């Protein structure tokens, strides 16, 4: 039912993990595969939207979006989002952005010299929070992967980041897998979506987004 529901609308999506370099060959990342973000991009295309996809390092074929920007670190993803956000109607932040990055990145390969090696991490910018607080913010959708108190933590993130909609899931079953169970949380309350393939879930989530967006001020 969502086919053509976003005709002519512009949708910006982030997907995949980020990679925070430690030195020339090493870095910190997470196990996000990018599957859900890519499925959301395909669902947005199916809904008739013009789609820009900003991708962290992933190893999957991307859907035929209107524009794709590949990035590595959270800071690069933030720069790309700032660059692309103008004139978008909807921002869907699916990426598993690293919360911290090494305070220092060494341009050479670190040698195995120290008995104990201590890494200092500094916080990354919160991209979604930034976009949601822009003066003419697009309709913003967040994703929340949690391992406990899924609904409570997701709802507090939704309120904290001022999002009309957050999509919550269990990080343990969602990361890397082909299917997942989701809980949509908006101003009307919670809407569970029972386990299905991520492609199916993405279509359901996009239908919900289109419905909410249609009544968005
Ligand atoms: O706070 P948490 O990382 O769990 O929030 C999840 C949501 O915020 C996701 O939609 C994620 O893409 C976004 N996020 C972000 N920038 C960060 C951290 C999270 O855009 N630095």
In a nutshell, what does this entry contain?
This is Coenzyme A biosynthesis bifunctional protein CoaBC. This protein is an alpha/beta fold and 217 residues long.
Description:
The chain is α/β, with parallel strands linked by helices. The protein has one domain (10-105, 117-214): Rossmann fold (3-Layer(aba) Sandwich). The protein contains 6 helices and 12 strands. The protein has helices spanning 35-46, 74-84, 127-132, 150-160, 171-174, 198-214; strands at 10-15, 20-21, 27-28, 50-55, 67-70, 90-93, 100-102, 121-123, 139-146, 165-170, 179-186, 189-197. Strands 5-4-1-6-9-10-11-12 form an 8-stranded mixed sheet, with helices on both faces. Strands 2-3 form a two-stranded antiparallel sheet. Strands 7-8 form a two-stranded antiparallel ribbon. Helix 1 crosses helix 6 (198-214). The radius of gyration is 18 Å and the shape is globular. It starts with 9 loop residues before the first strand and ends with a helix. The mean pLDDT is 96. Bound molecules: cytidine-5'-monophosphate. Residues 74, 93, 95, 97, 99, 124, 126-128, 142-144, 157 line the site of cytidine-5'-monophosphate.
């Amino acid at each position: 039912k969502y086919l053509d529901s976003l005709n002519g609308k512009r949708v910006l999506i982030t997907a995949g993990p980020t990679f925070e370099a430690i030195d020339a060959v090493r870095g910190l990342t997470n196990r996000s595969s990018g599957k859900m973000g890519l499925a959301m991009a395909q669902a947005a295309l199916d809904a008739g939207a013009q789609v820009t996809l900003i991708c962290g390092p992933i190893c999957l074929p991307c859907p035929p979006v209107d524009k794709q920007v590949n990035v590595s670190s959270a800071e690069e993803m933030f720069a790309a989002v700032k660059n692309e956000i103008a004139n978008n109607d909807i921002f869907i932040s699916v990426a598993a952005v690293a919360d911290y990055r090494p305070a220092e990145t060494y341009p050479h390969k670190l040698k195995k010299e120290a008995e104990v090696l201590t890494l200092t991490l500094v916080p990354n910018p919160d991209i979604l929070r930034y976009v949601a607080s822009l003066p003419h913010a697009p309709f913003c959708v967040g994703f929340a992967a949690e391992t406990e108190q899924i609904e409570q933590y997701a709802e507090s993130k939704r309120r904290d980041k001022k999002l009309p909609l957050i999509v919550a899931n269990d990080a343990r079953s969602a990361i890397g897998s082909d299917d997942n169970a989701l809980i949509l949380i908006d101003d009307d309350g919670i809407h569970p979506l029972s386990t299905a393939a991520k492609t199916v879930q993405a279509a359901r989530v996009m239908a919900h987004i289109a419905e909410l967006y249609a009544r968005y001020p």
